[in-house]
Design a protein that fits this description.
The protein has two domains: about 1-30; about 35-174, Porin (Beta Barrel). The protein has one helix at about 1-25, and strands spanning about 35-45, 50-55, 55-70, 75-80, 85-90, 90-105, 110-120, 125-140, 150-160, 165-174. It has one helix and ten strands, in the order αββββββββββ. The chain starts with a helix and ends with a strand.
Length: about 170
């Protein structure tokens, strides 16, 4: 009887320890992804125009008039002809910039950069400014830039830069 009781006690203790360990392990926040800097774009902008209030919000277009980009693995020019299409409703603006870049060795890459600009208040009523986008790249599969096709990217503006346009920093999510 003592042996059976001791076996039950050991089993219960082990089961409790496992349950406590599993619970504490599941309550821990997993580590976030790391990032790698890819490039900084200095984008020249044309004159913005608005379609006005639509059923979805205020539609504005900002033409892309050129620019440059530079990073550890690529550099070149931002081609004229794209635009940043914005849809604003209240303090939130959805952004969708579609344009092309050309590397200094002659490779064209299509860019579609979507995101959010929020200039309102947080849950405690304090002013909040948020501006992040996620560019998607389409590079030729047979080029040395094909790695851009197979990753997620984050983009945030730089403020305080002495540049007549917008400065955007891009990171690859690893």
């Amino acid at each position: 009887m003592k042996k059976t009781l001791l076996t039950c006690l050991v089993c219960c203790t082990v089961a409790t320890a496992i349950a406590v360990h599993d619970k504490s392990a599941s309550e821990k926040t997993p580590p976030g992804p790391s990032t790698e800097f890819v490039m900084q774009l200095k984008v020249k902008l044309g004159s913005a125009y608005t379609v006005g209030e639509t059923p979805h919000g205020r539609r504005t277009a900002i033409p892309i008039a050129g620019g440059t980009f530079k990073g550890p693995r690529l550099r070149g020019t931002v081609l004229e002809g794209g635009a940043d299409w914005q849809l604003a409703k209240g303090s939130r603006t959805e952004l969708e910039a579609i344009y092309s870049i050309k590397t200094d060795d002659g490779v064209h890459i299509h860019v579609r950069n979507c995101g959010i600009l929020y200039n309102g208040k947080d849950e405690n009523g304090r002013p909040q400014f948020y501006f992040m986008t996620s560019p998607k790249f389409e590079a030729p599969e047979n080029s040395k830039y094909a790695w851009l096709n197979n990753a997620l990217f984050l983009c945030a503006p730089s403020f305080g830069e002495k540049f007549d346009g917008i400065v955007l920093n891009v990171w690859k999510v690893k």
